[in-house]
Amino acid sequence: MKKTAHIILLSVLLAALLLLAACSPNTAPANVAEDGEAFVFPEGETDFATLRTPGSQEAAYTYQSFFLPAQDNGVQPYVGDTMPYYEDGTYYIYYLKEGGDSYNHSIYLTTTQDFVTYTETDAVVLEASRSGGQDGWIGTGSVVKVKGDYYFFYTGHAGSDAYEYKEKIMVAKGASLDSFEKVEGWEIVPPSELGQKNDFRDPQAYYDEATDTITLTVTASQGNKARILKYSLSGDLQNASYDGIIFTDEVGGYWNLECSDTFRIGDTYYLTYSAQDDTLWYAMSDSPYGPYSDPIRLDGELFYAAKHTGNGSDTYMVGWARRSESVSSTQEVTGWAGNLAVQKVVQNADGTLTLAPVDALVDQFTQRRQLLIDGMTAELSSGSAYSYLDLCTAYESFLLTGTIRFEKNGTFGLAFDYNGRTDKYKTITLDPNGDVLALQFNEGSTLITETPADIEPGKDYTFTYVQEGSVGIFCLDGIASLTVRLYGVSGKPVRLFTENNTVTISDLKQYTRE
Fold this sequence. Notes:
mainly beta, 6-stranded antiparallel β-sheet
C-alpha cells in the first residue's frame, strides 16, 4: 500500500510540475504565439496532400485577389495586357483576354473597389474584327473621358501581310464604360521618319480639360531602337499632330517598349514600360514628357505590361503575373498572359520608386497560423552546401512577414518543396554579392527572373510575402519587389535556406484568410 501511495504522490507532483511549466510566463500555450496573439486551426481547408501534381493543384485553386477570368466550356482563359481606368471609387480593369471565348485577344473587363475581390463582365467590350481587316487582332490601348463621352484608343493589328501597315492606332467611342462602338475611318499611322510600318502600338491617352486636348503616347521602333512617341489630338478627334520622340532606349538595347505610361507623384513625372520580353522599367523627369533619367528596373519578368492607376491619394501598377506554358516545367515561366496582379507604388525620398503589397490585400489575412518552428525566430548557418530549416506550411493563400538579418554575402531566402527532391526546390533568393532578388528553380541552378536589390550584412530588412495559388509577390520593404510563379508547392513546407551565410529571421508571422 505504501508503494502504491508513493506512486500516486509522484504522479500528482509530476502533473503539477507540468501544469506549472505550461502556465509559466516564459512559455506560451500551444494555441497562442509568443506575442500573445491566438493561433487559429480552421477546418475545411483543401487537402493538398492528395493533389500531388502541379496541374491538379492549379485546378483546385480559387483565385480571388490574383484574378482569373471564369472558365469557358472547361477552358481556362488568362489576363493579357491590362488597361486600368478609375472613376468614382471603382477601378475598371480592361484586359486582352487570352483563350476561352475571346477572339484574337479581344478586350474584356473586370471591376474592383479594393483589388481584393473582382466582378467580371461576361460580354466582350471591344472585339477583334471577325471579318479580318486592320483590327483582325486587338492590341493594347487605354480609356479616356472627354466631356461626357469615353474614348477607347487601341491598337489595330492586321491579321495578314496584305495590309500596308501591320499596326495602326484606332479608336472606339462610348457613352458608358462597358460599351464602345468603333469609329470607322479614324486612325493614326506611323510617321514616315520611323522607316518602318510594323511596330506602332499601345496608345496611352491623357485629357486636358483646360485646353480640350488629348495627349497620346505610342510605342514604336526606329532603326531597331525602341522609341516612345507623342501626339496631340483635339478633344473632338478632328485634328492630330505628331510631336516627336519623347524617349529612346539607350540602356537595354530593346527593340520595343510595350505598354508605356506616364504619371505624376508630387513634383516628379514617371514613364513606365515593359521592355519586350523583359522586365518593368521606369524613368524620371521634372516635366511631363521628358527629358528622362536613365531607366531603372522595378520588378522582374513575371510582372508584365503593368500600367498605373490611382484614386487621388494612392498610385498602383496593374499588370499580369506570367505563367508557364507547362505547369510541370522546372525550366521556364515564359507563357503569355496569366493572373491579374496589382502592386502599390511607393515614392522614396529621392524620387525613386519601389512596389509594395496593396494595403487591402494584406489586411484580409487575419488568421494567425502556427509556424513549424518554436517561437517567432529562426536562425540558420551554412557553409558551401545549402542548409534548410522548415518555417511554415504553404497554404492555398497566405501572408508571411518578418525581419531578416544576415552576416555574410552568401545567398539565402525561402525554399519551396516541389516534388520532395532537394535538387528541385524552387527558391526566392537574396544574393547580397550580386545585389539581386531572384526566382530560381532546381535548387538555384535555373534562373527564372531577378530584380535589383542592394542589401548589406549586419542590417535589418523587413519583408512581406503574399501567395495565392501559384502566384506570389515578395517585397523586401522599401528595397525591391519580385513577382513569382510557384506551381506544385501547396501543402508542403516553406523553408529558410542559406549558403555560405548565417541568417536570422525574427518576428516571423504567418496568416491565412478567413
